[in-house]
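Renewal narrative, Specific Aim 1. Our central claim is that a sequence can be written position by position from structural information alone. The example that follows is taken directly from our test logs and has not been curated for this report. It begins with the structure tokens describing the chain, in the order in which they were read.
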């Protein structure tokens, strides 16, 4: 088959310990004289400190929730308009970055968030520039055109070029305070991005390379980052793994483990990374083929069975749930129906219908 692909990566990436200090330069680069800083509640004090040093920061919005709500997006967009922001800086985990991205897309024209969320109207042509500053090592949202936002229980992944940040500042120092359990959840999210980008039906050569390196980095560093959060070498390598994981799925998109993560998060309240990890080792076994065996050997593993074992080990180490019986009363029929119906399921290299998903979940009973 002839090899054809289109590769594009438009985000200017500033990476390194202490890189946050480059924020004024990045703002100047973008010609933004005033910005709104959207930050994780945990980073509010840090944000206040930045505001005292950087006059371009006109206001701070820190009311971001986990699984961010559309109401938070609307409030951040209103504040951006009020303070005359020309850019939005998102500093936090994926929830914060996704809030910043959505708010920047609707702020200038005061577009109705709900209509855009529902797809009833297109996002406006004008938007504010986004600078993404991740504080967890997981989502890769700093380099994707994805924003995941909820309205009540309905969690929606919107993939739209309007969400692509203009710049990313990846400063591993920010992740030093992430607690162990979140370190494990987010690290396994990065691993899921890399593996799913790699085995996606839409995979392509440049994303394959970032995926292999991201998998290698996670396997070599996640346990250390989990056990010793102050280990800056492990934190730096995990920040790089998450960035590369983001690049790995940005174009190919994710597949079955992410498709299953949505019902698992919505109905059983698993955090995003834990929800992706729940099926990841099962899917390594299901999706194992020559390409996956190649990746495994390239990262120093014997084979895909060893990769599945390593994922199980990390999940157990982090105290993540691995069996349906740990999720309370599970409606397996609904779970399989919802997973099968998710559009990302179409990216999985092996077709998984409800019966195949039932077999997978029954093995996790
Ligand atoms: P998160 O942003 O929800 O944060 C998880 C927890 O960690 C929060 O309690 C937060 O306060 C805390 N936290 C964040 N940074 C911290 C720090 N430096 N120190 C201490 N605590 C800190 O978690 P996440 O996993 O980064 O993001 C998950 C969200 O991102 C989900 O909504 C998921 O669907 C979405 N997501 C988006 C993309 C994308 O491309 N846009 C990709 C994957 C996931």
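The sequence written for that structure reads:
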């Amino acid at each position: 088959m002839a090899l054809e692909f289109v590769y594009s990566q438009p985000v200017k990436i500033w990476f390194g310990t202490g890189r946050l200090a480059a924020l004024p330069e990045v703002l100047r680069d973008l010609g933004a004289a005033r910005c709104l800083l959207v930050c994780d509640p945990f980073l509010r004090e840090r944000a206040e400190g930045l505001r005292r040093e950087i006059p371009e920061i006109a206001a701070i919005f820190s009311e971001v929730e986990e699984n961010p709500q559309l109401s938070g997006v609307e409030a951040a967009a209103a504040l951006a308009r009020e303070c005359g922001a020309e850019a939005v800086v998102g500093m936090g985990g994926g929830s914060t970055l996704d809030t910043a991205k959505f708010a920047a897309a609707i702020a200038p024209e005061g577009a109705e968030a709900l209509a855009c969320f529902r797809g009833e109207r297109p996002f406006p042509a004008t938007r504010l520039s986004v600078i993404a500053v991740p504080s967890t090592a997981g989502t890769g949202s700093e380099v994707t055109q994805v924003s995941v936002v909820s309205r009540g229980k309905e969690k929606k992944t919107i993939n739209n070029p309007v969400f692509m940040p203009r710049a990313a500042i990846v400063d591993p120092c920010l992740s030093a305070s992430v607690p162990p359990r979140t370190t494990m959840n987010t690290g396994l999210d990065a691993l899921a991005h890399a593996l799913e980008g790699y085995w996606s039906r839409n995979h392509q050569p440049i994303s394959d390379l970032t995926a292999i390196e991201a998998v290698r980095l996670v396997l070599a560093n996640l346990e250390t980052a989990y056990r010793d959060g102050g280990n800056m070498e492990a934190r730096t390598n995990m920040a790089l793994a998450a960035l590369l994981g983001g690049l790995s799925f940005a174009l190919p998109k994710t597949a079955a483990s992410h498709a299953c993560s949505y019902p698992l998060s919505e109905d059983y309240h698993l955090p995003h990374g834990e929800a992706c990890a729940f099926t990841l080792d099962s899917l390594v076994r299901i999706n194992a083929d020559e390409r996956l065996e190649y990746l495994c050997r390239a990262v120093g593993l014997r084979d895909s069975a060893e990769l599945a074992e390593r994922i199980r080990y990390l999940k157990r180490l982090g105290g993540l749930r691995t069996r349906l019986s740990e999720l309370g009363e599970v409606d397996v029929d609904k779970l399989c129906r919802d997973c099968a119906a998710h559009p990302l399921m179409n990216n999985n290299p092996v077709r998984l219908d409800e019966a195949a998903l039932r077999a997978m979940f029954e093995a996790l009973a």
